Amino acid sequence: MSETETGSRAQVLHFPRMAPTQPNVAFNRDELREILNVYGRKVAAGEWRDYAMDFTRDKAIFSVFRRASETPLYRIEKDPAAARRQGAYSVVAGTGLVMKRGHELNRVLRVLEKELRVVD
User: How many domains, in total, are found in the chain?
Assistant: First the structure.
């Protein structure tokens, strides 16, 4: 115990131990390289301007923005819990529509590479 300025003893409080936490899900180096290659091409084309990365216990999310003040145009998500069923990777549009989902990131990212065509 230690004494305070008034001469009374201070009481030490013990906090309960925290349970070990599960680490956050993150993109590995190869996954980030693939995502940033697509991002770089879209920035060079003037379509995208900013991005954000979020790492939670459940998902890793790479969000793409046209402007920093807007909502994301797309979210590239890695969800290990869905890996066995539908694939860990997905591209989600700003409206919440899942555009593509799969087991391989490079195949999922192809949905962002498609160019628009004029329909007659």
Answer: 1
